[in-house]
Specification:
This protein is α+β, with helices and mostly antiparallel strands. It has 2 helices and 10 strands. The radius of gyration is 22 Å and the shape is extended. The N and C termini lie far apart (about 65 Å).
Amino acid sequence: MSAKEKTVTLFKLFGLSLLIILLVACAGKMFTYMVSWVAENDRISLEAGGPHKGNWQTRDVAIEYAYQQDTQNLQISGVLKLGDYLTTGFSALEYLTLDIYKLDADGIVLDSELIRTFGYRRYMDYLGKMTFNKQLDLPEGTSAIAFGYSGKVTQGGGGFRETRTGDRIDWQFWKVPGRKPSE
């Protein structure tokens, strides 16, 4: 194989590798909860105008929210509080991501969006008020929204620099859309 052929082959491999990297990077939107389902008791029906206020609660979190909808936009803000078992049983919040799901009338996810990430390795005593405020575009056919989250808390282990986990307790918690049960 001549030097020219080797160079051409290397450029082809480089181009192919670059194409694969770009496809993987752009595929992130493919791994969302699109077409997943949200149970009726977790849906927040949208009403035009506003502001409209409400509360949404699970065992893990409580959210006081207010939203205002005009045409295909939604302005939403609120305060997120961790459940008592998380704040009294664990000393630090490793992370907490809050998402919003835009739903059709049947509770099917049309789109999802990250609202905010909280607490990266923060001790519970120093968390402060966890607030959010976001302007969202709503896809056509959106009639409801739902919150979702995923997080991790820790207790013990000598701090965040500790590499061994023998005496550290990690607890992960989440609420995400699922599959619609068979009827």
